[in-house]
Amino acid sequence: MKKKVGIYICQCGPNIADNVDIDKIIESVSAFNDADDLEIVAKPYGLLCSGEGKDYLKQEIEENGLTHLVIGACSPRDHNNTFIGVCKETSLNPYLYKLINIREHCAWIIHDKDKATEKAIQYIRGGLRRVLYQSELFENKLDTNPDVLVIGGGIAGIEAALSLADADRQVFLIEKTDRLGGKAATFKTVLPKQQDAVEAIQLKIQTVQDHPHIQVMLNTRLDRIIGFLGNFEAEVRSIDDAEKMTELKIGAMVVASGFSLYDASTHPDFIFSGDDEVYTALQIEQMIAEKNQVTTRSGKAPKSVAMIHCVGREEVGYCSQICCNAMIKLAARFKTQSPDTTVKVFFRDLCLPHQDDQAFYNEIKAQGVEFVRVNRIATEGSQIKFTTMDENEGSELFDMVVLAPAMIPADGTPDLATKLGISLHETGFFQEAHQAINPVATATDGIFIVGTAHGPRGIQATLLQAQAAASKIRVQLIPGEQIVPEVRVSETLEAFCMGCKTCLEVCHYGAIVFDEDKGISVVKEAVCRGCGNCVGSCPSGAIQLKHFTNPQLYQEMIEAVQ
Amino acid sequence: MDKPNQNEFKPKIVGFLCNWCTYAAADLAGSSKMEIDSALTVIRVMCSSRVDPNLILTIYFNGADGILIAGCHPGDCHYGKGNYFTRRRYAQMKQVFETLNLDPGRLQLSWISAAEGNRYAEVVNAFTEKITALGPNPINQSSLF
């Protein structure tokens, strides 16, 4: 069949028109007209991305019966999707179109107009050659399930569940312990202003339990998942009764599995046993919440308290962000309980990130809490030995010692990561898709990480993340709407695959599986993101990335060396 | 110093840019109207890890004077770890070039983030200068064959 390629050069106002000679481009590409095989329709236009421009293109495609389309205009990062949208409203398959960037790659960077024109001609010719090698691709719409599985019933999981259930999503909330609320539910007050937290958190827990769209499953853990965004199947199992397995169909997952604390007793500088008056900050929080006062094991109020920050920070290699404030909050609490209590805070660095923190610290200091900056500190029971920053040594005995151990990944995090097929950060917390631009998503579409499962943070940041993940899910999975997976994905060429499984190793998304019967790799198209890493890895050339095949790229490249 | 044909030689360089970082840097360099040598032809790939050794050797043997691969900085890959694979494959390609007695200096890998329009211009211009100084790809001198 004779091919008819439309080549439209956008003037982009003066942006392209002033810096390259569009008429020359038209003249040059028109020379490709070949009576037998190829007809070229080449025209300039003012602004193709405008409403009029798009209508003009649609009309041109239909009236000329174009089989292929090349647009010489701006960066595909600006308007590739615009013109794909135009094609979709015509009879032309959008993957038989190619946008060539003669603005950023020619008009704007090559300051000599003749040279810029020459380069633009070369790019357009490359685009023409490439588009003739492109293939039609067809989008495959999939039904989706808008239900969500939330893993972890702490405040992160609770918040995510409520944000989704309030938008009429069915939520399954699994929790490995026998109660909801996590660690935060054991706090009497929360920062930044020591608001009473018990009531607020209990109210949220009650709302979750009563919610018609939330099914709470306590003493339950995740066994396995399969699937992809919109279509996951999860098996969850009762921890008490291994026979009791439930299968859930969901569209997305929120991982809110929380944190654990660094075990200070394993640190050589902190020697204590269960009989000593040594507590973690969390134990003090729980004591306050339970009986509204802090006492020693013998039931007396402590007259002197040492508070030691950053226990295990050097060992884990990061700052846990919230302990300084939590410790200052507890120091204040000791002073409220009995103003003549001696409270000494031993710290190395103070981390006061919230805008209210500095004022709170100043206030507590004014109340007589003493802050001692130390270089080294060790304990033997409640006897403290320390070296200050100016190398003075000290030794003091206290009635009570409170430690702020580092936050570490929750027990079972690596196992959960394996089941979910998502990565861990070098610190052992779950790894986000992109630290700066996609912080609650993971590399697997449809799996989100929120709260301290993602790293140390406070309640406020945890709730923000939970709400963010819930919003992302609400946007990605709309009840009754289908999703369109990426079509520019990899495919294996059965005849060439030797079954070496190299591609399975390099795929970041677990999108390639091995067909044991045939002995070849197979791409799960709905999971593939189309990066092409497997193509680069395949030793037998058995994988190609649709729309970025070697023959297509070859056509572009070869024009560059003519 | 005599450098015959130095002024007339205009290198042909092929640059594989990843869509998310370096291609975006090229866009930024463009919108900042930085002056960039026209020797480089940009080939957009979604990830630098898409650039398989076949493409590099194919374009080299078809006469490219220089080949640039550029992507996100290590740790910044849009697809998680693609650029680490690129780095490994690049190191292997350098060895392949040496084994085949080709000049590995004609092959370059650079990390250029989306924010580094300036750096993109510098890298391309410096690489163009380097390749200009190296002279034409010997493949193009028919006397070799």
Question: Would you kindly provide a written description of the structure presented here, covering whatever features stand out?
Answer:
The complex is a heterodimer of chains A (562) and B (145). Chain A has 562 residues and is of the alpha/beta class. In chain A, the strands form eight sheets. In chain A, strands 15, 16, 17, 18, 19, 20, 21 and 22 form an eight-stranded mixed beta sheet that branches. Chain A has a five-stranded parallel beta sheet with strand order 9-6-5-13-24, covered by helices on one side. In chain A, strands 2-1-3-4 form a four-stranded parallel beta sheet, sandwiched between helices. The longest helix of chain A is centred in the N-terminal third of the chain and has 19 residues, at 113-131. Chain B has one domain (17-133). Chain B is of the alpha/beta class and 145 residues long. The chains are: A alpha/beta (562), B alpha/beta (145). Chains A and B meet through α4, α5, α6, α16 and α17 of A and α1, β2, α2 and α3 of B.
CATH superfamily of the largest domain in chain A: FAD/NAD(P)-binding domain
How many H/I helical runs of chain B?
Answer: 4
Q: What structural category arises from helix and sheet content of chain B? A: alpha/beta
Give the total of beta strands of chain B: 4
Structural class of chain A: alpha/beta
Radius of gyration of chain A: 31 Å
Mean pLDDT of chain A: 94
**How many strands, which pairing sense, and closed or not: the largest β-sheet of chain B?**
4 strands, parallel
Biggest beta-sheet profile of chain A: 8 strands, mixed
What's the tally of helices of chain A? 17
Radius of gyration of chain B, CA atoms, in whole angstroms: 15 Å
* Residue runs with pLDDT of under 50 for 5 or more positions of chain B: none
- What general outline of chain A do the C-alpha atoms trace? elongated
Helix content of chain B: 25-40%
Question: What name is given to the CATH topology of the largest domain in chain A?
Answer: FAD/NAD(P)-binding domain
**What is the succession of H and E elements of chain B?**
EHEHEHEH
Give the beta-strand count of chain A.
28
Low-confidence stretches of chain A: none
Number of domains of chain B: 1
